[in-house]
# Entry
Amino acid sequence: LNVEQRLRYGLASHALYMVYQPQVNDAGETIGLEALVRWQDEELGFVSPAEFVDVAEKSGLMIPLGNFVLDTSLREFRQLIDKVKQPLDLAINISVIQFCQPGFVDTVLNALKTHDVSPSSLVLEITETLFMGNFDQVLQTICDLRSHGIRLAMDDFGTGYSSLSLLRQLPLDELKIDKSFVDGIVEDEKAANMVRSIVAIARSHNMSLIAEGVEEQAQAQALIKMGCLRFQGYYFSRPVPMADVRQVLTDTA
Ligand code: G
Ligand code: G
Ligand code: MN
Ligand code: NA
# Structure
Protein backbone atom coordinates (compact mmCIF):
# COMPACT_ATOMS: atom_id res chain seq x y z
CA LEU A 1 0.00 0.00 0.00
CA ASN A 2 1.27 3.40 -0.99
CA VAL A 3 1.21 5.87 1.92
CA GLU A 4 1.41 8.87 -0.39
CA GLN A 5 -1.64 7.79 -2.42
CA ARG A 6 -3.58 6.96 0.72
CA LEU A 7 -2.68 10.36 2.23
CA ARG A 8 -3.79 12.17 -0.91
CA TYR A 9 -7.09 10.30 -0.67
CA GLY A 10 -7.30 10.90 3.09
CA LEU A 11 -6.91 14.66 2.68
CA ALA A 12 -9.76 14.69 0.16
CA SER A 13 -12.01 12.37 2.16
CA HIS A 14 -11.83 13.82 5.67
CA ALA A 15 -9.82 10.95 7.15
CA LEU A 16 -7.58 13.42 9.00
CA TYR A 17 -8.51 15.21 12.17
CA MET A 18 -6.96 17.24 14.96
CA VAL A 19 -6.36 16.51 18.64
CA TYR A 20 -5.20 19.03 21.26
CA GLN A 21 -2.80 18.62 24.14
CA PRO A 22 -3.22 21.00 27.09
CA GLN A 23 -0.32 23.19 28.19
CA VAL A 24 -0.41 23.70 31.93
CA ASN A 25 1.18 26.20 34.35
CA ASP A 26 2.65 25.55 37.79
CA ALA A 27 -0.76 26.21 39.38
CA GLY A 28 -2.22 23.40 37.26
CA GLU A 29 -4.25 25.74 35.05
CA THR A 30 -4.50 25.07 31.33
CA ILE A 31 -3.05 28.07 29.50
CA GLY A 32 -2.80 26.71 25.98
CA LEU A 33 -3.36 23.85 23.57
CA GLU A 34 -0.99 22.26 21.07
CA ALA A 35 -2.80 21.12 17.93
CA LEU A 36 -1.60 17.71 16.67
CA VAL A 37 -2.80 16.09 13.47
CA ARG A 38 -4.06 12.48 13.35
CA TRP A 39 -4.86 10.13 10.49
CA GLN A 40 -6.94 6.99 10.61
CA ASP A 41 -6.82 5.29 7.21
CA GLU A 42 -9.30 2.58 6.18
CA GLU A 43 -6.52 0.33 4.89
CA LEU A 44 -3.36 1.41 6.71
CA GLY A 45 -5.03 1.92 10.07
CA PHE A 46 -3.59 4.57 12.36
CA VAL A 47 -0.50 6.21 10.86
CA SER A 48 1.77 8.37 13.07
CA PRO A 49 2.25 12.00 12.00
CA ALA A 50 5.98 11.42 12.44
CA GLU A 51 5.63 9.14 9.40
CA PHE A 52 3.04 10.87 7.24
CA VAL A 53 4.31 14.44 7.75
CA ASP A 54 7.59 13.16 6.34
CA VAL A 55 5.77 11.60 3.36
CA ALA A 56 3.83 14.84 2.84
CA GLU A 57 7.04 16.88 2.85
CA LYS A 58 8.57 14.68 0.16
CA SER A 59 5.54 14.44 -2.11
CA GLY A 60 4.13 17.95 -2.46
CA LEU A 61 1.34 17.23 0.02
CA MET A 62 2.71 19.35 2.87
CA ILE A 63 1.01 22.55 1.74
CA PRO A 64 -2.50 21.00 1.53
CA LEU A 65 -1.85 19.12 4.80
CA GLY A 66 -0.58 22.31 6.49
CA ASN A 67 -3.59 24.26 5.23
CA PHE A 68 -5.91 21.57 6.60
CA VAL A 69 -4.18 21.84 10.00
CA LEU A 70 -4.36 25.66 10.08
CA ASP A 71 -7.98 25.80 8.98
CA THR A 72 -9.29 22.98 11.19
CA SER A 73 -7.44 23.93 14.37
CA LEU A 74 -8.35 27.62 14.12
CA ARG A 75 -12.01 26.78 13.45
CA GLU A 76 -12.19 24.37 16.39
CA PHE A 77 -10.27 26.78 18.63
CA ARG A 78 -12.71 29.57 17.78
CA GLN A 79 -15.62 27.31 18.76
CA LEU A 80 -13.89 26.54 22.07
CA ILE A 81 -13.08 30.11 23.07
CA ASP A 82 -16.67 31.10 22.42
CA LYS A 83 -17.63 28.74 25.24
CA VAL A 84 -14.89 29.20 27.84
CA LYS A 85 -13.79 32.31 29.67
CA GLN A 86 -10.13 31.68 30.44
CA PRO A 87 -7.47 33.03 28.06
CA LEU A 88 -5.87 30.27 25.99
CA ASP A 89 -3.09 30.07 23.42
CA LEU A 90 -3.19 27.80 20.39
CA ALA A 91 0.12 26.26 19.28
CA ILE A 92 0.39 24.85 15.74
CA ASN A 93 3.33 22.89 14.32
CA ILE A 94 4.66 24.33 11.07
CA SER A 95 6.78 22.36 8.60
CA VAL A 96 9.82 24.02 7.05
CA ILE A 97 8.08 23.50 3.67
CA GLN A 98 5.17 25.68 4.80
CA PHE A 99 7.36 28.24 6.51
CA CYS A 100 9.49 28.81 3.39
CA GLN A 101 6.53 28.83 0.98
CA PRO A 102 6.03 32.30 -0.60
CA GLY A 103 2.92 33.88 0.90
CA PHE A 104 3.07 31.85 4.11
CA VAL A 105 2.50 34.89 6.35
CA ASP A 106 -0.59 35.89 4.34
CA THR A 107 -1.88 32.31 4.50
CA VAL A 108 -1.70 32.43 8.30
CA LEU A 109 -3.21 35.93 8.54
CA ASN A 110 -6.07 34.93 6.23
CA ALA A 111 -6.81 31.80 8.28
CA LEU A 112 -6.85 33.91 11.48
CA LYS A 113 -9.22 36.39 9.86
CA THR A 114 -11.51 33.68 8.47
CA HIS A 115 -11.95 32.18 11.92
CA ASP A 116 -11.85 35.46 13.84
CA VAL A 117 -8.94 34.40 16.06
CA SER A 118 -6.55 37.04 17.41
CA PRO A 119 -2.94 36.75 16.16
CA SER A 120 -1.88 37.23 19.78
CA SER A 121 -3.44 33.85 20.67
CA LEU A 122 -1.36 31.98 18.10
CA VAL A 123 2.02 30.32 18.64
CA LEU A 124 3.72 28.72 15.64
CA GLU A 125 6.09 25.88 16.50
CA ILE A 126 9.09 25.60 14.23
CA THR A 127 12.03 23.21 14.44
CA GLU A 128 15.74 23.50 14.08
CA THR A 129 15.64 22.07 10.52
CA LEU A 130 14.60 25.61 9.53
CA PHE A 131 18.17 26.72 10.20
CA MET A 132 19.31 24.72 7.19
CA GLY A 133 17.33 27.06 4.94
CA ASN A 134 18.10 30.60 3.83
CA PHE A 135 18.82 32.56 7.02
CA ASP A 136 17.75 35.98 5.74
CA GLN A 137 14.46 34.62 4.43
CA VAL A 138 13.73 32.76 7.68
CA LEU A 139 14.55 35.87 9.70
CA GLN A 140 12.30 38.03 7.49
CA THR A 141 9.35 35.63 7.87
CA ILE A 142 9.82 35.44 11.65
CA CYS A 143 9.90 39.25 11.92
CA ASP A 144 6.89 39.58 9.65
CA LEU A 145 4.84 37.12 11.75
CA ARG A 146 5.89 38.77 15.01
CA SER A 147 5.01 42.25 13.71
CA HIS A 148 1.42 40.97 13.60
CA GLY A 149 1.62 39.67 17.18
CA ILE A 150 2.04 35.99 16.30
CA ARG A 151 4.53 34.22 18.56
CA LEU A 152 7.19 31.71 17.51
CA ALA A 153 8.32 28.70 19.53
CA MET A 154 11.36 26.51 18.92
CA ASP A 155 10.11 22.92 19.22
CA ASP A 156 12.26 19.95 20.32
CA PHE A 157 14.93 22.37 21.47
CA GLY A 158 18.39 20.86 21.87
CA THR A 159 17.89 17.89 19.56
CA GLY A 160 18.61 19.43 16.18
CA TYR A 161 20.92 21.65 14.22
CA SER A 162 20.62 24.95 16.01
CA SER A 163 23.68 26.71 17.24
CA LEU A 164 23.52 29.21 20.06
CA SER A 165 24.78 31.86 17.68
CA LEU A 166 21.82 31.30 15.32
CA LEU A 167 19.44 31.34 18.26
CA ARG A 168 20.92 34.67 19.35
CA GLN A 169 20.21 36.16 15.94
CA LEU A 170 16.60 35.03 15.74
CA PRO A 171 13.84 36.80 17.67
CA LEU A 172 11.87 33.83 19.04
CA ASP A 173 9.35 33.92 21.87
CA GLU A 174 9.48 30.47 23.39
CA LEU A 175 11.69 27.39 23.80
CA LYS A 176 10.14 23.96 24.13
CA ILE A 177 12.37 21.68 26.19
CA ASP A 178 12.42 18.34 24.41
CA LYS A 179 10.99 15.23 26.05
CA SER A 180 14.38 13.49 25.88
CA PHE A 181 15.73 15.91 28.52
CA VAL A 182 12.60 15.70 30.66
CA ASP A 183 12.75 11.87 30.64
CA GLY A 184 15.97 11.77 32.66
CA ILE A 185 15.53 14.91 34.74
CA VAL A 186 14.91 13.14 38.07
CA GLU A 187 17.59 10.45 38.05
CA ASP A 188 20.13 11.51 35.41
CA GLU A 189 22.34 14.42 36.46
CA LYS A 190 23.40 15.04 32.83
CA ALA A 191 19.81 15.47 31.66
CA ALA A 192 19.13 17.72 34.66
CA ASN A 193 22.15 19.86 33.77
CA MET A 194 20.94 20.13 30.16
CA VAL A 195 17.61 21.45 31.43
CA ARG A 196 19.39 23.95 33.69
CA SER A 197 21.38 25.17 30.67
CA ILE A 198 18.26 25.51 28.53
CA VAL A 199 16.54 27.49 31.32
CA ALA A 200 19.56 29.82 31.42
CA ILE A 201 19.50 30.24 27.63
CA ALA A 202 15.78 31.07 27.66
CA ARG A 203 16.29 33.62 30.43
CA SER A 204 19.21 35.35 28.76
CA HIS A 205 17.26 35.57 25.50
CA ASN A 206 14.04 36.70 27.20
CA MET A 207 12.17 33.65 25.92
CA SER A 208 9.41 31.81 27.71
CA LEU A 209 9.82 28.09 28.41
CA ILE A 210 7.68 25.01 28.27
CA ALA A 211 8.70 21.40 28.93
CA GLU A 212 7.35 18.57 26.79
CA GLY A 213 6.70 14.95 27.62
CA VAL A 214 6.13 15.39 31.36
CA GLU A 215 4.83 12.00 32.51
CA GLU A 216 5.36 12.13 36.27
CA GLN A 217 4.72 14.59 39.07
CA ALA A 218 8.37 14.35 40.16
CA GLN A 219 9.44 15.64 36.74
CA ALA A 220 7.13 18.64 37.02
CA GLN A 221 8.46 19.36 40.51
CA ALA A 222 12.07 19.16 39.32
CA LEU A 223 11.25 21.48 36.42
CA ILE A 224 9.63 24.05 38.74
CA LYS A 225 12.75 24.00 40.94
CA MET A 226 14.89 24.72 37.89
CA GLY A 227 12.65 27.59 36.78
CA CYS A 228 10.50 26.02 34.07
CA LEU A 229 6.90 26.72 35.05
CA ARG A 230 4.92 25.45 32.07
CA PHE A 231 4.38 21.86 31.02
CA GLN A 232 2.89 19.55 28.49
CA GLY A 233 2.67 15.80 28.90
CA TYR A 234 0.67 12.69 29.70
CA TYR A 235 0.90 13.46 33.44
CA PHE A 236 -1.45 16.39 32.80
CA SER A 237 -3.34 15.17 29.76
CA ARG A 238 -2.94 13.21 26.55
CA PRO A 239 -3.87 14.98 23.33
CA VAL A 240 -7.70 14.86 23.07
CA PRO A 241 -10.34 15.81 20.49
CA MET A 242 -11.68 19.37 20.89
CA ALA A 243 -15.00 17.96 22.11
CA ASP A 244 -13.14 16.64 25.20
CA VAL A 245 -11.01 19.73 25.87
CA ARG A 246 -13.67 21.48 27.93
CA GLN A 247 -13.75 18.54 30.34
CA VAL A 248 -9.96 18.80 30.75
CA LEU A 249 -10.29 22.54 31.35
CA THR A 250 -12.73 21.94 34.20
CA ASP A 251 -10.56 19.15 35.64
CA THR A 252 -7.44 21.34 35.68
CA ALA A 253 -9.16 24.60 36.66
O1 G B 1 1.51 13.87 17.95
P1 G B 1 2.75 13.05 17.87
O2 G B 1 3.64 13.03 19.10
O3 G B 1 2.49 11.64 17.39
O4 G B 1 3.60 13.77 16.72
C1 G B 1 4.71 13.19 16.15
C2 G B 1 5.43 14.23 15.31
O5 G B 1 4.58 14.78 14.31
C3 G B 1 5.94 15.38 16.14
O6 G B 1 7.23 15.73 15.68
C4 G B 1 4.97 16.48 15.83
O7 G B 1 5.58 17.74 15.94
C5 G B 1 4.58 16.18 14.40
N1 G B 1 3.25 16.74 14.14
C6 G B 1 2.10 16.43 14.77
N2 G B 1 1.09 17.19 14.29
C7 G B 1 1.62 18.00 13.34
C8 G B 1 1.08 19.02 12.49
O8 G B 1 -0.09 19.37 12.53
N3 G B 1 1.95 19.61 11.62
C9 G B 1 3.27 19.27 11.55
N4 G B 1 4.05 19.93 10.67
N5 G B 1 3.81 18.34 12.35
C10 G B 1 3.00 17.70 13.24
O1 G C 1 7.55 17.19 18.04
P1 G C 1 6.40 17.61 18.91
O2 G C 1 6.87 18.16 20.20
O3 G C 1 5.44 18.56 18.22
O4 G C 1 5.57 16.31 19.21
C1 G C 1 4.81 16.15 20.35
C2 G C 1 4.47 14.68 20.42
O5 G C 1 4.73 14.17 21.73
C3 G C 1 3.02 14.41 20.12
O6 G C 1 2.93 13.37 19.21
C4 G C 1 2.44 13.96 21.45
O7 G C 1 1.43 12.98 21.22
C5 G C 1 3.65 13.38 22.15
N1 G C 1 3.59 13.50 23.61
C6 G C 1 3.06 14.52 24.30
N2 G C 1 3.19 14.32 25.64
C7 G C 1 3.81 13.15 25.78
C8 G C 1 4.22 12.39 26.92
O8 G C 1 4.06 12.79 28.07
N3 G C 1 4.85 11.21 26.67
C9 G C 1 5.06 10.74 25.41
N4 G C 1 5.66 9.57 25.28
N5 G C 1 4.69 11.44 24.32
C10 G C 1 4.07 12.61 24.49
MN1 MN D 1 5.28 20.55 18.75
NA1 NA E 1 8.68 18.42 20.53
Summary: DSSP finds eleven helices and nine strands in the chain. The two ends are 45 Å apart (CA to CA). The longest strand covers residues 30-41.
